[in-house]
Amino acid sequence: MFLVSLIYTSEMTGSMDFMDILEVSRARNEREGITGVLLFCNNNVVQCLEGSRETVNNTYARIVQDKRHQNPLLVDYRILSTRLFSEWSMGYVPESSITQPTLLKYSVSQDFEPRLLSGESCLRMLAELTRKVSTV
Ligand SMILES: Cc1cc2nc3c(=O)[nH]c(=O)nc-3n(C[C@H](O)[C@H](O)[C@H](O)COP(=O)(O)O)c2cc1C
């Protein structure tokens, strides 16, 4: 069984209890060998899931049914040789650490438009943001 990573973006349907989502996600991901990172910005969600193909696919299928967000868009799906977020059962990037210089580095403007990012840019941006923050 080999490693894959999946990135999607979606839109929040209302005000989300981030801490509740993180708590449930971390407990379940730890049991299932999933690592990754989650961020919320301008009502958008961006999440990366890493783990076995079967587990990542099943987790994504469950997450997209969740009524707390809508319009999921699969941004990247790839085979991995090494996890990028191995330290996080689900890392969290607070909105305050998503700066305009970082956005400009990975996209055509300094606006946060995850639907316009390539999979590679999105993955690299998540990796940079996660390195910068000490997650809660
Ligand atoms: C934005 C978002 C991200 C989520 N991330 C995860 C996750 O990484 N892992 C996970 O198990 N559940 C995650 N969830 C929660 C799932 O949608 C689901 O509520 C949870 O896994 C419990 O599923 P169950 O009630 O079928 O057991 C996330 C939900 C949302 C809205």
CATH topology: Alpha-Beta Plaits
Give the SSE string: EHEEHEEHH
Count up the domains: 1
Average of the residue pLDDT scores: 94
Main β sheet profile: 5 strands, mixed
Helix content: 25-40%
User: Largest sheet, order of strands side by side?
Assistant: 4-1-3-2-5
CATH architectural group: 2-Layer Sandwich
Oligomeric state, counting identical vs distinct chains:
single chain
Inertia-based shape: globular
Structural class of the helix and strand makeup?
alpha+beta
Number of strands: 5
What is the CATH top level name? Alpha Beta
From the alpha-carbon coordinates, what is the Rg to the nearest angstrom? 14 Å
Bound molecules: flavin mononucleotide
Can you describe this structure in just a few lines?
It is built from 4 helices and 5 strands; from the N terminus they run E-H-E-E-H-E-E-H-H.
Characteristics:
single chain; 136 residues; alpha+beta; Alpha-Beta Plaits; five-stranded mixed beta sheet; 35% helix; binds flavin mononucleotide
Give a description of the structure.
This protein has one domain: Alpha-Beta Plaits (2-Layer Sandwich). The chain has helices at 18-32, 53-63, 100-106, 119-132; strands at residues 3-12, 35-41, 44-52, 69-80, 91-93. It is built from 4 helices and 5 strands, in the order E-H-E-E-H-E-E-H-H. It is an alpha+beta fold. The protein binds flavin mononucleotide. Flavin mononucleotide (FMN) binds next to helix 1, strand 3 and helix 2.
